[in-house]
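About this split. The held-out portion is used to measure sequence recovery: a designer receives only the structure tokens and must propose an amino acid at every position. Recovery is the fraction of positions where the proposal matches the reference. Here is one held-out target exactly as it appears in the evaluation file.
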């Protein structure tokens, strides 16, 4: 693929978090405060997306990506804010798959503190629901 500037664009195909046929590349863009890294994604049908959020939105709406593909892409390292809070995780919760952990946190719901269950996947992804 040739850009308008005449430079060849090289797409990587070795990102294990991407669904089959998807490609990715990284570019440096100038901003007011210096250089910033921009991540691009390309679907198997050639659609390009600037940033993980845009690619994820398309994947979730597309019938071509499985729920597991979407979850794997969502939970890839560096894609989202890292989970840093320490909780008392329950490792032998029989209501979730082996390897997963659960905890109960207190949340403010319309001014009232209520318990809410959270999950930690084996890959380190913090999930607020069983569907994440």
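Reference sequence for scoring:
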């Amino acid at each position: 693929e040739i850009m308008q500037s005449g430079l060849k664009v090289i797409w990587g195909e070795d990102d294990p978090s991407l669904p089959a046929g998807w490609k990715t590349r990284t570019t440096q863009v100038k901003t007011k405060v210096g250089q910033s890294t921009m991540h691009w994604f390309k679907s198997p049908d050639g659609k390009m997306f600037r940033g993980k959020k845009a690619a994820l939105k398309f994947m979730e709406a597309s019938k071509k990506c499985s729920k597991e593909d979407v979850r794997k892409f969502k939970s890839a390292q560096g894609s989202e804010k890292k989970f840093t809070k320490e909780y008392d995780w329950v490792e032998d919760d029989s209501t979730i798959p082996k390897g997963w952990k659960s905890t109960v946190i207190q949340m403010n719901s319309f001014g009232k503190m209520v318990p809410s269950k959270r999950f930690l996947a084996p890959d380190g992804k913090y999930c607020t629901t069983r569907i994440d």
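Annotator remark: The beta strands are 23-31, 34-42, 48-50, 101-109, 112-120, 126-127.
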